[in-house]
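Good morning C.,

I know you're traveling, so I'll keep this short. The sequence:
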Amino acid sequence: MKARLTFDLNEPDEAMAHLRCVKSLDMALAMWTFTGKLRKLVDESEDGKYLDEKYVWEAWQEALDEHDISIDNLIN
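The tokens, ready to paste straight into the viewer:
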């Protein structure tokens, strides 16, 4: 079985859909990376539950940056 996606890259909505398809693996890998970082932060926190919002945000941004994901570029 084969599937083929076709996009008219001259159409802004289709160009955005194409970009989302192209970046889907990177997004999945970024989420996987963040899950690992979050698990580590939870494990290293003093009571295992409290996390400073700043550290969670930094871990999220690092995961996105590591996989070259820009949310702003994927969402209009």
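Safe travels,
E.
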